[in-house]
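=== RUN LOG ===
request id: a7f3
mode: sequence -> structure
chains: 1
length: 185
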Amino acid sequence: MMELTPYIIETLQFLFWGYGLSTLIFGIFAKISHQPKDKTMQYFTSANIIASCAGILLAITLFLELIQGYDTISDTDHTFFTYRQRPFILAILLTIATSMLTLSKKLRQNWFVSLFIALVLNICVMMENIFIIWTSIFRDYLPSSWGYYQDFRISSWLTALLCGVIYFTIVVAFMRLQKTRSKSH
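=== RESULT ===
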């Protein structure tokens, strides 16, 4: 399981990007087109339930990574681990707290709360990347180890758009499944 954590975090990163983009786009589209209120609320409910489950998975993954880091430290790395555990504990607590926001039906159906949840979950999933960047800056400052500058390419934008479309498709499929299950009862 421990060697799967980078892949789980990377997958969740794309899922949360898609969640944030699709929630933003759907919210704007719903305001402009004056969609029925029940369809909008059903979308936000479904999207937030899926994001909440993914948030709990992120909290578990970060906790397992924190435990794995604690098991591998030596006496010389103890101060580094103490410095490293603070953002992880903060990310775990924030992820759990934002996932618990979806327990309230009123909050789960609010567009601004959905955007807040998307922002917090994206920050928490990027915590590891941010930590790696900031800790490697002071260790690797020689010009011989610098890379070449590459601008933000169009493929990054297409990846973000693709994540939004995939997440939107998952939510719509979840909504259809809920609808067919409620009709059969």
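=== NOTES ===
Residues 37-71 form the longest helix (35 residues).
The chain has seven helices and no strands.
=== END ===
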